[in-house]
Amino acid sequence: MADKEYFNPGIVDEQVDGLLQGNATPGPEARTARELQALYQSDLQSLERVWQRLDLGTDTGFGERPWLNNVSHHDTSSPHLERFRYVQGQHTQRKGTNSRLVLTRWFGLIAAVLVAALLVGSLIAFLNITGGSHHKSTISPPPRPTAPVVNAPNLQVKTVSGVYVGDDQYLTKNDPLTGKIIWRYDIKSATGVKTEYQKVYRIVPLGNTVFVLLANILDPAGAYEQRVVALNAQTGAVFWHKSLPDREPQDMIVADGTVYVSTLVVNTPTDKSAIYALDASKGSIKKSYTFSFASITMTWYAGNLYMGTSRGLYVMNAHDGKIAWQDQINVGNPFIVTRPQIVNGVVYVAFNYTSKESGVMRSFIRAYHAQTGANLWSTNELSNQVYDMTVSNQKLYFGLMHFVDGNLHAFGGIMYAYNIQNGKPDWSREIDGNASAAPAIANGVIYAPTYSGPQGKSCTITALDASTGQLKWKKPLMFGLAINPVVVNDQVYVAVFGITSNTGKLYAYKLDGTLAWEADHTQIVSMTAVA
Question: Which residues form the Pyrrolo-quinoline quinone repeat domain (predicted)?
Fold first, then answer.
C-alpha cells in the first residue's frame, strides 16, 4: 500500500517519530504512541524467549530493538528496519533470504505467537489464583443477562391485558377487544372438597400473576374451605395455591410483595377474624393476626393496613400487627364499613348502620389524616346505605337507593358528588335504579350500573357528566346485579349476574355508549377485574 497516495508509510513513520520524541508532557496521541511502543516491546521480548525455547536459531533479530535506539524510519537500507517490518507481518524481505528460509520463518513465527499466547494466558490465570485472596478488583464485571422467569410470580413485569371474570365454576380471562376467552381455570380443581357451590371472592391481577381468593361453601350453616391461588396471567397455569383455615373469606389485597387475606370466624357468639400475610412469590404464610372484631375490607397504604371492621376503622402496622390508630363507632347494628379510599394522604370511609330509633339503614362518610387519624370532616347522616364509592378529581362519588312508591321490588337511586375538601355535596342526580356499585370515572364521565328501575324489571349502565351530573347516555343490561364497572382502554366493562336465571353476562361498551361486545356466562358471575 506504500504507492497509494492516501496511505504513505513514510509520512506515518515520521509522525510516529515525532510523537515518540516529543516533550516531557505528552498529549493524548503521544501517550497512546508511547504506550503502544511499550506494549510492542513486551510482546517482542516474549517472542524472543519463545523463539529460543523452540530451538529455531539464535538469529532472531528481536534483541536488536532498532526502535529503542531512535533509528530513523526513513533509513530504508537499515537491516534493523527490515527486521522491524518483518515482525509486523509486512512482505519486505532481507537480501539473500531464499523462499525456503522465508517459509520456515513464517511457520516458526506462527508457532511462536501461539505458544506465547498460551504462556501469557497461563501466567494471567496463575496470578489471578495466587493473588485472589490478597486483592479485590475495584471494577465489578458486568452482570450476566438472565432469562425471564416464567414459572414464578413477577409483580413488576407487564402482561397482555385481559378481563378476568369469576363465576361459580371458572375464572376466565377474556380478550378485552373481542370478549373471546383466552384461557379458563376450573376453580373446583383448587379446592379439596367438591361441592355444588364455589365462589370467587376477589381477583387481583398484578404483574404476570392473577391472585384469586376463592372458597367452597360446604354447608348452609357457614362451613367454608378457602384457598388463595396464584395463576400465570398469560396461560392460566398455577404458580402456587395455599389452603387457609376453614373460615369465611372477606377480602384480599396485594402490596409490598405480600398477599393479605382477611377471614371471618363463623358460628361464634362474638365477632372474630384473622388476617393472613402470604409471600406473593411462593404462597407461604409469613404472619397472621387475630382480632375480636370482624375485619371486612382492607386497603394498604405506606406500610399500614386500613381495615373497615364491625367496630369502625382500624389502622394496623402491616409489619408487626400493632394498631397505629382507630376510630370506633357505636351507632347501631349491623355495622358495615366500606373499603377505605386513600388519596393524597387522606382516608375516606363510609359507615353504614341500622338506626336504633327507626330501624332504618343509615350512613355517613368521614375523612381522616392517614398517618395520625385526625378527623378532617364528617358528612351529615345519609338516608340509606353507601355500598361503595370512588374518589376522583377532588370529588367523592357514590350512589344511594330508595323504594319507589312503597314497592319493595322497585328501586330508584340518587348519584351524589361530594367535595373532598370539606365533605359538602356539589350535586345530586336522580337515576333509574339502585346505584349500589362504585361508579367508574374516566375523561370527566361517571359510569354507574343501576338495578331494578321504576318498574322493577330493568337494569342499565348510565353515563353522567362528572362535573354537573347531567345524563349523557344509558344502555340496557341483563336483569340482575352488576359488579363494579371498570374503564380501561376507552371501554367500560361491567359484569352482571342474573337473579332469576343463575347465569351471567359480561359487557364492553365504548365511551360513547356503543356496545363493543357481550359475552355470556353459564354460571353466576361474582367478581371481575381488568388489567
Answer: 168-409
Whether 202 is in a domain gets the answer yes
Asked if 323 and 345 touch (Cβ cutoff 8 Å), the reply is no
Same domain, 114 and 42: yes
> HEC profile for 436-497?
CCCCEEECCEEEEEEECCCCCCCEEEEEEECCCCCEEEEEEECCEEECCCEEECCEEEEEEE
Tell me what pLDDT residue 360 has.
Answer: 82
Q: Is the pLDDT of residue 193 over 70?
A: no
Sheet (strand 295-301) strand order:
295-301, 304-309, 312-317, 323-328
Residue range(s) defining the domain that contains residue 317: 309-386
What pairing do the DSSP bridges indicate for beta strands 395-404 and 389-392?
Answer: antiparallel
Residues 356 and 432 in one domain: no
User: Treating both helix axes as pointing N-terminal to C-terminal, what angle do 99-131 and 28-53 enclose, rounded to 10 degrees?
Assistant: 110
Residues 407 and 525 in one domain: yes
Convert the pLDDT of each residue in 443-490 to its tens digit. 999 999 888 765 656 788 999 999 999 999 999 888 778 888 999 989
| One domain for residues 511 and 425 | yes
pLDDT digits (tens, 9 = 90+) for 276-330: 999 999 999 999 999 999 999 999 999 999 999 999 999 999 999 999 999 998 8
Asked whether 429 and 469 are in contact (CB, 8 A), the reply is yes
Give, in degrees to the nearest 5, the angle at Cα 465 between 461 and 468.
135
Strands 170-174 and 163-166: antiparallel
Please compute the mean of the pLDDT values over residues 376-405 and round it to a whole number.
Answer: 89
Note whether 406 and 378 are same-domain residues: no
Which CATH number do you get for residue 453?
A: 2.40.128.630
pLDDT band at 242 (very low <50, low <70, confident <90, very high): very high
Residue 114 lies in a domain: yes
Determine the Cα–Cα distance for residues 347 and 364; give it in Å rounded to an integer. Answer: 14
Return the C-alpha cell found at 172.
Answer: 376466565
Do the beta carbons of residue 200 and residue 171 sit within 8 Å? yes
- Supply the mean pLDDT for the chain: 78
Q: 210 and 171 in contact (C-beta within 8 Å)?
A: yes
Task: Please count the other Cβ atoms lying within 10 Å of the Cβ belonging to residue 216.
Answer: 22
Residue 133: burial class (beta carbons within 10 Å; 0-12, 13-18, 19+):
exposed
- Structural domain count of the chain: 4
Residue 134: inside a domain: no
